[in-house]
Amino acid sequence: MRKIVIIGGSAAGMMAAIAAAKENPDADITVLTQDQLPYRRPAIPALIADYITGPEGARVFPPEALAKYGIKLILPAEATNLDPNNRVISVSSNGKKEKLSYDAVVIATGGYPLIPRIAGSDKKGVFTFTTYEAAAGIVDAAKSANCAVVIGASFIALEIAEALMHRGLDVYFNVRSRILRKLVEPDVSELLMQRFERRGLRMLAGEAISGIGAETHVEYVIHKRKKIATNLVVMGTGVKPNVALAEKCGIKLGPSGAIKVDNRMQTSVADIYAAGDCAESPELGTGRFVYSPVGSIGASAGKIAGRNAAGANQQTNGFLRAQADQILGMQIFSIGHSTTSAKEVGLEVKVHNLTVPVKSQMTKPFEIAKLLTDENDRIVGAQIVAKKHGSQFAWQLYQAVLVGENREEFLKRFNSPRMKMAEALANIVKSTVLVESIGEGKALTLADAASHKNINLVK
Amino acid sequence: MDKVIIIDIERCLACKSCEIACAIAHSKSKVLEEAVTESPRPQRMVTVEPVGESGVPIQCRHCEAAPCIEICPTGAIQRFDEQAPVVVDADLCIGCKLCMLICPFGVLQIGLEGRAIIKCDMCLERMEQGQEPACVEACPTKALRLVSLEEIIKSKRKEASKKLVKESGQAKG
Fold it and tell me: Would the ipTM clear 0.90, i.e. be above it?
């Protein structure tokens, strides 16, 4: 019986375990996780906003769901050593030590928060939020605080800021350059900063906080030589791959500092695979290996690592990064490359504004949208910000980026059916049939049916 | 799917009864008086979109080839069989929001509780007990109806034939 050990029980690790079990139902699969209970990482803002209490409120991959696949879960457990020569993993769990032998391993140890070097960042009242314990600390601190400073540029940092605002705190948001720098273009960042400010989030942009003033507990932060009084600081300044175990047993790291893998998600050591926030992953399009700590990529890479660990031989061409979030009433979608990420892999891109003509009585379908194309005018990235239903456009953008569609071809496709729909909606009162009315309604002609194909039949 | 929820735009008053009924049906207590005090507040999966002077109640289409099922990296979005609605298995949802990004109708959202994705489940629980989906039952003007595909086709045929006869009659006259 093939023995597979998975180190790490978040998205990448759990998906590796499930994929391995599906690939090889007879395999003996064990997952080691440091969590008390596997929980959904994006739930941390909900925890801070008091929508849920305790990790139980956000549990994911519960033991009973894993038992269906015959997956064993050891928790909380830490893999203290990995010996590739003898194929043995040393595990420490609840004070007990044991050794597990293996045929294949998947390392999915994730990442840990990157803390910028700011004087005073080691003081009480300064938090990160990647673990449940840290989030619980923020909740405690927020009870007695009336003002908070969140430092970061990412979706999750903004979500934390929104959650703290929901608790009634005055929230400052500090970003060194601009928000979502890696995900969207400068004018998109600018628009979002304006909208967020209007909703009450106080932006401290353009410069990093130069110091945190504290005796024992945080009292103020310094931004552009101004003191801002606060008793809670949350750092959301990015994630670093957790590669301690991999380095210890001689597994090679890539230039990004994350575990180097091949297209089968195998590391430099045979039968040891890696996926998730601890490893690099190939990028769709360029095929280059990059570090993208994104949940969906982690889960997809984990599946491939798991299948191969179970004896399959599956390769990936790469993963497309696509992220969406809803913050302070704005939906933000970012698919594929931004100018920032393209620069990192040496890809020349051109940015185009994307618009759809609208009739005056219609509300704007979206706030701002961008298309990024390479030198051959093929679409390599897209961004869209909308108040709602931005996904109506985002799904077309996603497909275009996925296949690298020619921009002009895409615009023909993007404009025509959407415009028809927009017109139909604008003329809804006059429109004979939008969605068929049965009974006393009028009959649909074939042409009507064709032009309203997308919306007429509601399943 | 043999039965689908259809919308008759001309009958919709944009009264939002469907939204309220949906939120209650997906609340813990299933009673309006208690649902309004629940925390987090119950969420609705049908939205009445204001368009011009009217509104369109819009909910999950339970697409035959559903983009959300295809894109979900963990297989959390699924249907149990061909005739079943598209549902989310919260046990597998990692909250990556890719489905939100790709849904052409924009009907998926983040659940306030637990941050898993939530969507219209066509009131599976109610349907099993022989009830109609909450939005359909609540609609005062019958703008929302649960009908079989056959019924739709049949009535369309009837209308088309009537129109043909009328038009040919006019041509002769």
Answer: no
